[in-house]
User: Fold these one by one.
Assistant:
Number 1:
Amino acid sequence: MFTYVVRRILATIPVMVVVALFVFSLLFIAPGDPAAVIAGDQATPADVERIRQNLGLDRPFLVQFSDWAWRLLHFDLGRSIFTNLPVTTMIAQRIEPTMSLMLITLLLSIVVAVPIGVLAAWKVGTWFDRAIMGFAVFGFSVPVFVVGYLLAYFFALQLEWLPVQGYTPIARGLWPWLENLILPSIALGCVYIALIARITRATMLEVLQQDYIRTARAKGLAQSPILFLHALKNASVPIVTVIGIGIALLIGGAVVTESVFAIPGLGRLTVDAILRRDYPVIQGVVLLFSFVYVLVNLMIDLLYTVLDPRIRY
Amino acid sequence: MDRRTFLKVTAGAGSLAATGGLATPAISQGAAAKTLRFVPQANLANFDPIWGTQYVVRNAAVLVWDTLYGFDEKLQPQRQMVESEETSSDGLTWTFKLRSGLKFHDGTPVLAKDCTASLTRWSARDPLGLMLKAIQQELTAVDDRTFKWVLKKPYPKMLLALAKNSTPMAFIMPERIAKTDPFKQIEEYVGSGPMKFAKGEWVPGAKAVFEKFADYQPRQEKASWLAGGKNMLVDRIEWVIMPDPATASAALQNGEVDWWENPISDLVPVLKRNRNVAVDIADPLGNIGTFRMNHLHPPFSDVRARRAVLMALDQEEYMRALVGDDNNLWKPLPGYFTPGTPLYNEEGGEILKGKRDIAGAKKLLAESGYTNQPVTCVVAQDQPITKGQGDVTAELLKRIGMNVDFVATDWGTTGQRRAQKSPPGQGGWAMFHSWHSGSDCINPAVYIAIRASGDGAWFGWPNVPEVEKEVTNWFDAKTLDEEKAAARRLNKAALDNVVYAPTGFFLTYQAWRKNISGIEKGPIPFPWGVSKSA
């Protein structure tokens, strides 16, 4: 097991190298010029060129890439072209809101989606099942920003229970932190809940047909332990897989959610950086996201062994 | 449901809540009343007003850095940091004396050497500064409070250059900071303005904080735009960056922010219905919508093709696309200068007036030799102003029989592509859309878009010697009448040759909570004199 974990962690290195090379190349060939944005409308072409030189953007691709890679090896992601702040500082400023949002969304999604998926499978064909599946279609179909605006309409502006926007660090208290995250998490979680609920239902339906479930029922075991102890445990591998894959959905959704609720997170940092062509920030954030994604999938793989002892690495 | 309807429905919630008698949430008292929460037009992504010339940087910079002179609401330069100035009889030597008691935020006094270093850095980047630099003999400190600027030829527009609010403004920084290469970003944000920049609280893209500078020495005169006493009535200003207008609208209605610089016109009716929110015009100098045609390559290298477009251009269509049905927000602009300012005139503007002549435009276009080649029309989709204009232009070009190659892109890409001088089929362009702040179009000194000096001109590179001649005449003018005469000839020459296409004059709104008072209309959201009750 230990060898496997080490091997998987080492395997992330070539993945990150490919991601780094890909992102760097993509940005290099993409149109747009940060020097022109900085110089503004009044600038002459000579001004723009001088700013480009000062930023080192006039150097050949290989020189720029090797310079960036060398700094990366020293855990230096460079400085933002615009703010002149270290990219690591900018990420550090933004990571807490995004991680908080993703964590709350993840918890909310699992706590809601798994039970309703199980119950839908149990009550298959009933109104409850249809209602859950209807909600799943809704969750998939309605964009995050629409759900976000509607939630803000009812719960912030009409009922005045929660704030419209912003983020409060957890250091200032649990409730101030949580109250800013409730609406964004529900908005972002809708699609995720729909996804997990559907997978849970489908997998449970399959498991509930198995002989050992019939045996359990024949032994007179109550419905609840059958569903949640026996069936769910055996259905959990695909569910956990989907949760892992869904992290990518969360990352994508966080970009929109953070904009709608004005949360100063990594998603907004990414969008701002892309619009301005702030290359070091884009590269830093994409690398971070890909690293998180790889790490989450590793954790999911390891979780398999806990959920299904037959799986060994 | 379209975008506008959706925004109105969702953002309208706050209005309903307010008119329905629901109490707004209690904001903390005391300290909150001394903190002004402001939603700016854009993110403060950098904070060097000489290196980065975006309006949002300037708007933040006026809090932190002071200027020698400042425009008042009549667009007249008034002394600000300067106590007095003298000009030699030959007009070649300007001697400036600073007010006493001026201090930087680090406690050091403002000295003449700080001014000379700051003006040197500014003059390397600013168009007027570059003109001054070209005729400069020396710029030196005489003593701690006096410096002189010796020129090789008279420069009557000196005070205008030092007072102007177009970017980059002539801000005064400590010498050690001002010695930074003008093409590199400064790393310290120390000024002598009424507010200090709280660098430690700056989260680019989310928040910027300014704190009252206790040692600031305001002038005794009444504040008027960038002139007069900049008395701060709040202790702290928090800039809250909100990229989504519906969120900003909801936050303002909910009392989570106090002042929103630029509500989009779609949301203004909703804000006006809210009894806790006031809405008014932001800047009486407004904006001028534009698209520029590339004078270097066919079809717009031929003036007849450019004039054909103007003959068919309906400014009302453009303005409706930008401001909707609100007639208070726009007016036709058969000229180039900002309406309501001294140089505004309509000389040569007949081509933009009256019923649009589509048949005449088609005929003139044919005479220009247009052979149905694609017209590469670059339109940034992430800017509502350029997107709205671009959609109208595409229809306009089709109406007169042009083959439109509509390039939908973003503003960052537009910025790069418009600098390409290659033909449209080889990475270049035929037209792109933009807009100019009205304060940048009040006279030729600050109006880079009207210049027509060929390679040195703004994108599109018009080469019209008559325009340049009248710009020079304006600079040399001794009286306002002479200036106006030059501006009339300039306007006609620019329209005859279609330096660029003005699509109309439009205004924007600002909105604030009614417990905020003292907000003025102006090209910059001036925070001095603004107070907040609990």
Number 2:
Amino acid sequence: MDFGDDPVERAFRMRLRAWVAEHNPGLPTSSTDDGFWEGQAAWHQSLYDAGFFGMSWPVEVGGQDRPSVFDVIVDEELAAAGAPPRPSVGYLVQGLLEHGSDDVKRRFLPGIVNGRDRWCQGFSEPDAGSDLASLRTRADRHDDDYIVHGHKVWTSYSDDAEWCLLLARTDHDVAKHKGISAFALPMRQPGVQQRPLRMINGITKEFGEVLFDGARVPAVNMIGGPGQGWALAMTVVSHEREPGELGYVGRYTKLVNELAARVRKEPDAYGTEQVQHLGWAMVEAEMLRLHVRRRLSDRLTGMSHGPEGSVDKLLMTEVEQVVGHAALAIGGTGVGSDDDTWLKVYLYSRAQSVMGGTSQIQRNLVARRILGLPVA
Amino acid sequence: MDVRLSPEQHALRDAAAQVVDRLGPDTVVGLDDIERTGRLRAAVDASGWLELRQRAEGDGPLASGVEVAIVAEELGRGLADAPFVGPTMAAELRRRAGAGPAVEPETVLLDRTLSSAAFSRNGETPAGASVDATPGQSALVLLGDDTAARWRLGRVPLRAGDSQLDLTRRTAVVNDGAVLAGLETPDALGQDDVDVWTALGLALTCADLVGVMRGAFELARSYASTRRQYDAPIGSFQALQHMLVDAYVALEGSRSVALHAAWAVDALAPPDALAAAAAAKAYCARAALGVCETSVQVHGGIGNTWDCLAHVFLRRALLSVELFGGADTNVARVLAHHGIGTPAGSGHGLR
């Protein structure tokens, strides 16, 4: 039982620390500024090229086949240096690894892992949110292609994505979960129209909505077989719920460190209640860091990603929103100053209990699949 | 990094669980079964668990913070009415001071709020309170003077306190007119010793709270699966399911921080061990109150009666929260570790 680094982990940490000191691009906070999203691709490629991204993924797709603890070390060191967090593409990688054919993996995974290809995720629709399986976007076979019609929303990074991991209905005569297939659809084509969504904190580069009107996707770009899209979707969302997969530990620690630095600089400017919010944010961010370590260790035994992801999503949401309250308490709303960065951090934190499955859906999953509570 | 328990640590957990399951109280009435309590205490005495922090060959303790935390968690889960935290903390002080092992049962004296060690300045008998004391027992005290931050050990006799807070662990206070006796202390204790000792106390109470949460949670889950209203088990109603899930999630977060605190006691530098323990205690203290209150609520009217074990868990949690400081005290310790002065007052009022 050891929370500390072994010699190999220690050496990796030191090498990374030295590299970050030289190469931190100093992007603004991810949740508050479109400048972060504009600089993200370059940051991803820079991390990858230096050997600090894709640590735990297979060598064949550009990873390093190391234990997941190396991802944790990356998160910790990036946060400690105030560098941008690790790009969140793990859920795409895991979805393709688990459900894609060898051909699909070979064609698409290296570009996702090395950051050269930008992807978005076309799952949710205006009328298919929590009830994702009721999605209505359709893909109809025409010779070697499928023709896609429909409307996706909450599509992360849709404005600079070259590819979309799309869920569409290919069979209308079976139960709703069974008629869905998954595709890798090229975004730069007639028939795909992308519109940015402006979020409550004003950012426009993270989410978009996408309209498909006769867009084409080659049949060989189907991931898994016809009707197997739901299984892929479940893999993707279960990874999307895991803080260890997302690199969010680094994001929270970075925010907390910045708030603490403000208070240390001007201790008399903050009252007891404000400082208490910061103290709880420290406690919560530390909890998540350690919780991820425990989860990753459990995985060494071969425990797979299961419903525990919903527990971790609920913990991550608690942390994000406590950090959000600390941002509001210490950073303020920006009234009387020109800086509304911390207001934006707070406003952004409200989405964590919705994205990737609402907290209410997560609780339903935990009640049934972990606690084994009786069904009504 | 690999934070899984070793095979030996798993075996220790199983052994502790077996003792508690066999000899712990499984009903409120069972708490009054003197014969059972006696057998439980004898089993704990015979197990060697109370000596885990005594000096091993060489310098360190026989076992790390992780092993004592494993035992503490199982004792908490089973509401064990046998001393463990007090004697373990006394053994830690004796080892650090280079004093020989205690010849009779012993605990430690904390200040009146139970949040930190009781200090005696210039030989005065300090006020304070202890946990895990039996009548006639004594507690170790830190003795110092106003000039140096070095402490020697002393002993004060205790009498039973009036508190009925925890029905499984009695508290005690310093005897009226008690005389403080010095103890041979070859190695005077420094601030680092006191910090690590406090970290151990926090790690042990976190482990106890994790155990208490597990016990209270299982009690509620099982009740929700069997109790029927409106022709259905109440655990099938979404309102109850979400309460139980929130309790379970708080328990899972607590396990992670408590495990780290137990490891940190012997693995990190003293100030870092104390900060790790303080963060864990703040989290576990808040979580434990929530989980135990949920257990009472899930039991409905029955949960508010003396005969339901739910309040025994809640009471034990309340005492463990106070021992070595609750949420506010420990949030202040975390802030201090980040160079931010202790906030005055209390009440965190999360929005």
